[in-house]
Structures are given as C-alpha cells and as structure tokens.
Amino acid sequence: MADSGRENWAVDELLKAEEEANAIIKNAQKEREKKIKEAKVAADQEIAVFRREEETRYNQEILRRFGSTKEEEELERRTKAEIDKIYADYEANKLAVVDMLIKRVIEVKLEVPRVVKGQFEQPQQMM
C-alpha cells in the first residue's frame, strides 16, 4: 500500500506540474496576444504618420507640377459649365431627335436611290 501512496503522490505531482504548465502556456498566449495588439496599434500609428507625410509630399508635388489650386478650381468650374451646357442642349433637343427618328422609321420611301440605280444602269464590262 505504500507503493500506492507513492503512485498517488507521483500522479498528483504530475497533475500539479501539468496544471502549472497549462497556466504558463495560457499566460504566454495572453502575453503574445497583448504584444501582437500593441504591435498592431504601433504599426497603425506609423502607417497613419507615413500616409500623412506622403499625402503632403504628393500634394506639394502636384502643386509644383500643375500650378496652384486656383487654376484647378477654374478648370473645374469651366468643365462643370460645359457639362451643364451639354445637358441643357440634350434636354432642349431630345424630343426633336426622338420625333425625327420615329419619322424616319415610319416613313419609308419606295424608290431606289440614285447611287444604286447608277450601278445597275452602267454596262457591265466583261473580264
């Protein structure tokens, strides 16, 4: 029976060691997750700073190459005015165009065009 007590003691020690190992593993996993989150936050911050710097540099380069934003605003204004004129022309003429197309489709001339007649009227040359 003494052997049984030692076996129980050994099993208890193994179970205790296993529990400690599991606790250490869980702790290590939690620390790893914490460090990953911290690294992600730090990386996001670095990316945000980098993005702002690059956007600033890009905007400065655009200004240097293409001039001031006033010219760009003037171009946008003129472009919008031209687009508005195109839409106004479209609205003004769409009914007339639809009517013309309908008229062309409905009215069929029953005569052979001159161009086609000319091809048949010319004597065909023998080869």
Question: In terms of topology, how is this protein built?
Answer:
Blueprint: H1 2-66, H2 69-106, H3 114-121
Q: Please give the largest β-sheet.
A: none
Give the helix level as a range of percent. Answer: over 70%
Cα distance, first to last residue? Answer: 125 Å
Structural class: mainly alpha
Strand content: under 5%
Topology pattern, helix = H, strand = E: HHH
Tally of helical runs: 3
Mean pLDDT: 87
Low-confidence residue ranges = none
> What coarse outline follows from CA principal-axis ratios?
elongated
Oligomer: single chain
Rg (C-alpha, Å): 43 Å
Counting DSSP E segments of at least 2 residues, the number of strands comes to 0
Description:
By secondary structure, the chain is an all-alpha fold. 87% of the residues lie in helices and 0% in strands. It is built from 3 helices and no strands. The chain has helices at 2-66, 69-106, 114-121. The radius of gyration is 43 Å and the shape is elongated. The model has no long low-confidence stretch (mean pLDDT 87).
Offer a concise description of the structure.
The protein has 127 residues and is mainly α. The chain is 87% helix and 0% strand. The protein has helices at residues 2-66, 69-106, 114-121.
Salient structural properties:
mainly alpha; V-type proton ATPase subunit G; ATP hydrolysis activity; proton-transporting ATPase activity, rotational mechanism; hydrogen ion transport; ion transport; 127 residues
